[in-house]
Specification:
This protein is α/β, with parallel strands linked by helices and 453 residues long. It is 36% helix and 20% strand. The chain has 14 helices and 19 strands. The strands form six sheets. The chain has a five-stranded mixed β-barrel with strand order 15-16-17-19-18. Strands 1-2-3-4 form a four-stranded parallel beta sheet, with helices on both faces. Strands 5-8-11 form a three-stranded parallel beta sheet, covered by helices on one side. Helix 8 runs parallel beside helix 9 and helix 12 packs parallel to helix 13. The protein is globular and about 80 Å long. The structure holds 5'-deoxyadenosine and iron/sulfur cluster. Iron/sulfur cluster binds next to helix 6.
Length: 453
């Protein structure tokens, strides 16, 4: 979502004459868009700011002004404190106020021109008006695949997570606004949309008749847009997978058979302490229901190891759940204590070395599953949407329905095309294959030959 937000900030500033630059050294303005989700991401901000301060000083010595703005969730969480700790920062703004950037920039300029020592511009409220009502239509070069935020914020309050505090309450954009943005993107050449939200399947935007619309119905509506080939969405919560969304996976061919559905832990005790609102059994049932609607659906997941109070047997329960589901892809993290969240104050924090050991075991198992998943593609065919040209002449690189990168010799094709590809080789981070010609039968001896070559 920060990628999406950064692009939108650049667009808001374009009418003022700003355009994205190559680096901070010759920039009139630098916006640091920050993430607060784990301590490591958060810590990076101040070290990066130190570097920007040096650049600002050097440019000032050459008579050039540099506006430094810090946006995103660290800015939201730190607020005033950031202006105190880094007084050379001109603007601190939260994720819900960036539509007001032009006005903030003007204020920052006025303050610095007045020559008075000023404390910087701070905009970290949660305005009643939605920023989306004030943003221009997306118009930057998006390529073939683009992000589209449809939902923001979260009311779930998992006990480890800062999102409800930094992104604010759950909010869904109206259907017409989403459709309008999607249509503009597709008119500009986009063929694949990834719908974004911290809790994307809690989406409940209103349609023009004022009726609430869920994610399943939104996907159906978007799939009617001529030229839109693929729809993905992230990140979902197991509790918000409803019947309509499951049905949509069975009915809407554009909805890709690949779903990020984080469970965090496989232990009921830990899930309860995390306030996830579901147990391992109900998660597994949800996966089963989705698989019955769309048998080729593959799953990816987020895991946290070392949540306070996590015992060896809790951790084993997570490994068991992983063995049951068999993931195509996964992201795993050591629990990171976040100030202000309930879990930060919980007893029985897990020692760092235990977290390290558990993370290594968890990742080894997940790596096995990811490799198995990728290797299973060898000898199969899939639709590949070409996203960019490859290193060699005539080569294109695209994505499989499962978001795997696929390298193909396809001199007669162009970026934005979709083609049927026979997968021949499988590397850890990409696949390679050849075009299956129209009418070429399955099990073609030429393909068999290529496989055994
Ligand atoms: N510590 C570790 N991982 C976290 N995540 C969120 N908060 C924390 C935390 N405090 C992870 C979750 C979430 C992903 C985006 O980041 O797994 O799904
Ligand atoms: Fe954070 Fe996701 Fe839980 Fe919301 S549902 S509190 S965003 S982990």
């Amino acid at each position: 979502m920060n990628v999406y937000d950064s692009a939108r900030m650049a667009e808001v500033l374009a009418p003022l004459g700003y355009a994205p630059g190559d680096g901070p050294e010759d920039a009139d303005m630098v916006i640091l868009n920050t993430c607060h989700i784990r301590e490591k991401a958060s810590d990076k901000v101040y070290s990066e700011l130190g570097r920007l301060r040096d650049i600002k000083d050097q440019r000032a010595a050459e008579g050039q002004q540099t506006v430094i703005a810090v946006a995103g969730c660290v800015a939201q969480a730190e607020g005033e404190e950031m202006l105190r700790r880094a007084p050379y920062v001109d603007i601190v703004l939260g994720p819900q106020t960036y539509h007001r950037l032009p006005e903030m920039v003007a204020r920052a300029h006025r303050a610095s021109q007045s020559g008075m020592r000023h404390s910087g511009v701070l905009e970290t409220d949660f305005p009643l008006e939605s920023k989306f009502d004030h943003l221009p239509l997306q118009r930057q070069e998006n390529g073939v695949s683009a992000f589209l935020s449809i939902q923001e914020g979260c009311d779930k309050f998992c006990t480890f997570c800062v999102v409800p505090y930094t992104r604010g309450a759950e909010f869904s954009r109206p259907v017409a606004q989403v459709v309008q943005e999607a249509e503009a993107l597709v008119a500009g050449g986009v063929r694949e949309l990834t719908l974004l939200g911290q809790n994307v399947n809690a989406y409940h935007g209103t349609d023009t008749a004022g009726r609430e619309t869920g994610l399943g119905s939104l996907a159906r509506r978007l799939s009617e847009i001529d030229g839109l080939m693929r729809i993905r969405y992230t990140t979902s919560h197991p509790r918000d997978v409803d019947e309509d969304l499951i049905a949509a996976h069975g009915e809407v061919p554009a909805l890709m058979p690949y779903l990020h559905l984080p469970v965090q832990s496989g232990s009921d005790r830990i899930l309860e302490a995390m306030n996830r609102g579901h147990d391992a059994e109900s998660y597994l049932r949800t996966i089963e229901r989705l698989r019955s609607a769309r048998p080729d659906l593959a799953f990816s997941c987020d895991f946290i190891v070392g949540f306070p109070g996590e015992s060896d047997s809790d951790f084993e329960a997570t490994l068991d759940l992983i063995r049951t589901v068999e993931y195509a892809q996964a992201y795993s993290f050591k629990y990171s204590s976040r100030p202000g969240t309930p879990a930060a104050g919980m007893p029985r924090q897990v020692p760092e070395e235990v977290k390290d050991e558990r993370l290594a075991r968890l990742q080894a198992l997940l790596m096995e599953q990811m490799t198995t998943f990728n290797e299973a593609s060898r000898g199969t065919t899939c639709e590949v949407l070409f996203e960019r040209t490859g290193r060699h002449e005539g080569q294109l690189v695209g994505r499989s329905p499962y978001n795997q990168a696929v390298h193909v010799e396809a001199p007669a094709h162009a970026v934005g095309d979709m083609a049927t590809v026979f997968i021949e080789t499988c590397k850890p981070h990409s696949l390679a294959g050849c075009l299956r010609e129209e009418g070429q039968p399955k099990g073609d001896p030429r393909e068999e030959e290529r496989l055994s070559a």
